[in-house]
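Two folds, back to back.
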Amino acid sequence: MDTPINVFSDWAQNGKDEGMERHHNKSVMNMIDYACSGLPEYSFIDAGCGNGWVVRHISNDSKCNDAIGVDGSSNMINKAKRLDDKNKYYCEDLLKWIPQSKVDIVLSMEVFYYFENPRLLIKHINNNWIKSGGRLIMGVDYYKENISSHSWQKDCGISIMKLHSEKEWKGFFEFAGLKDIKSWRNGQDKDWGGTLIVTGVH
């Protein structure tokens, strides 16, 4: 078993990170469509941005006036910077980092369950990253109702992976002080629970 950061740093070196965009694209586009709908302009942070593929995508939207990626893996951030000299990337501990300016949208895909206490991370993000009226939107494929994901921790050899239910994730958003909390599944199939998406407003 190894830490999430070490595992994903290895992925950045061996090219395995490139599959993230392919596997998560539909769910992330669903999240972006929901979060950005109706906004005349917005600023954006990808929490756990990996190689920056979401930041690169969203920065091409003319309504996006600032796009930032933050990740704990230096290999991922170095790769993001190599691929993109337009946007800002930071290699930081998400639990400690605070952006210079709060933003309208924080998005995170397949990240929060790698933290020992996800609700503290969600609270930190809500308190320190998001403008009044701004939105946090999160997607996870590893959750209790998605039975086929339950072997992933052993399969990937990752030391921290917290398996929570949809109700528990919504409770973490409530604990953090987020309002108007909603959840849904994207991409459900007969053997696949789909991506659990949870969102709330600051």
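---
second:
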Amino acid sequence: MSALDRIERLPDWPARMTAPVAAAYMGVSQSTFLTRFAAIGMKEGGNTLWAKLQLDTIVAQQFNLTPIVAPSAAPAPVDEYEAWKASRKKG
């Protein structure tokens, strides 16, 4: 099953995307996406991921729209993944 097949099963675009999914989200080919946006990807293990919010901000800038900003008034949620990673380092 391809990345785009998996996306069709989701209710919305994921917060973090691999190159094929992020390219589809931005409406360009994967090679064009990597040429334009490879530098802003975040390495995690063997994957490079792009944040949906970051891509939305780029689109807003391209079209001179009000940038999309993550809500800052709400308390930051506990990052369970980061907590799990930290717990593994202690052991």
